[in-house]
Amino acid sequence: MHAEDVAQYLKDHPEFFEAHAVMLAEVNIPHPHGGRTISLSERQILTLRDKNRLLEKKLHELIEIAKENDALQNKLHSFVLALLAGHDLMNLPQAVSQSLKDIFAIPHAAMHVWKGLPPSAEVLDFADGLAQPVCTHEAVHETASWFGEAGPALHSFAYIPLRDGDNSIGLLVLASEDAQRFYPEMGTVFLQRIAEAVSAALRSHH
After folding, report:
1. What is the mean pLDDT of residues 135-150?
2. 52 and 120: one domain?
3. Which of 175, 186, 153, 172 is nearest to 106 (CA)?
4. Number of domain units in the chain
5. What is the secondary structure of 157-184 as a DSSP string?
């Protein structure tokens, strides 16, 4: 008889444990960490402790994620309030960039609004094709030059389309020297919230 057959038999006949309760109390099995044998009941306790440790670890991870999300929500709220400070179209890009640096600790941000600074055809096509923010490790077209002397040292970018309905009205680019600050697989939910807030601020000037 194979071990799998024994295991299946015990699953199919749970009454076995009631009929042989005394025997089960006398069964000794190897300690999971070696060195000695322990009773079946002790082994069950160790298994439960291991499961509890895993659950506690998972709970801790969920709590940390919730804290991070709360912190991001608070920062986003502060950012929206900064946008409501009455900036005109001329100084809005600088105000947005400065708020992103101050609130989100984003080292570099550049915002171009088509109304005041028409883009190249390539950048316009790129922005028009963005349904949502996208993160890359390479600058798109000439956008690295938007960051001046810092451009060549930047290794990660987040491209945030600014829209009025189906039309792009500008492009907000976040960048960092750290290649892991923005990466293709990262979530963009909060970047999309930033896009919506800035787009709304721009539409108020149209």
Report:
1. 92
2. no
3. 175
4. 2
5. EEEEEEEETTEEEEEEEEEESSTTTS-T
